[in-house]
Amino acid sequence: MITIIFAPPRTGKTVLMTHFLNEIAYHRERIKKMQKEVLNKQLNGFNVSIPEHCASSNYDIEFRKFGYSRRYNYEINPFRLGYENDFVDTHFVFPYQAFGITEGQKYFDSHLALYYPRWQSSFYEQHGHDDLDFFIDTQRPELINANIRDLSSFIEVVSLKINHKKYIGIKGLEWHIKVIPNASLYQKYIDSGKQLKVEEKKIIADYNVFNLYDSQNCKPKFFEGHFEEDFTLKQGQAPKQDLQGYIEYLERVDDELPKGFYQKRSI
Fold first, then answer.
1. Is the pLDDT of residue 64 over 70?
2. What is the pTM of this model?
């Protein structure tokens, strides 16, 4: 199953997806099915390892459950999910694997639909044959390529309530969500101005899901390319109202379009 989780920024999409993945990382029945199938592949000549659990993601997660040792996500690059092809080295995925993909519009950009590769599209079309599941979060499902969106169910995060306990801090989370089972109903829901009645429910986590991952894990990206320099700290000042002041202002202020800012997108 493919599930698109959507809501405006900072409203609990990724933390909800993390909660789902944490449950999957300790889901005994799913893990037993996966390990049984992989063991069968070993016995029939495949040189493959047996994974500890079934949860993968494109961001770091430290899974936790009372009474169990900590587990860690298997790293994936969503651009490398797909069938064997002549262009991109793809991940070798295992049966019953579940994937959490945050900022899905980056990987399934609807504006690049014309260039969307068939080797990945076919992979998602056939994902049920290997018992795979996908959770994709985004601000708006319309940003997700229709090849993926049309195969999906949807969860809209309406609100997130954070429950605190004195002297302890966050003791649990509670999401109010709307569940939309397919793309056709999702479109009707949007066309109605979100007035169409759909299933509503609450999801409760009795622990602090925020402790499992860093919600600011992309922070290193802001430093890339600047390791040898200081922050931009030029102080603003009003121009002097004379000829020299105007000349100095025009020399100092940088507000023009940089060369190379607009680029034709690569395929």
1. yes
2. 0.85
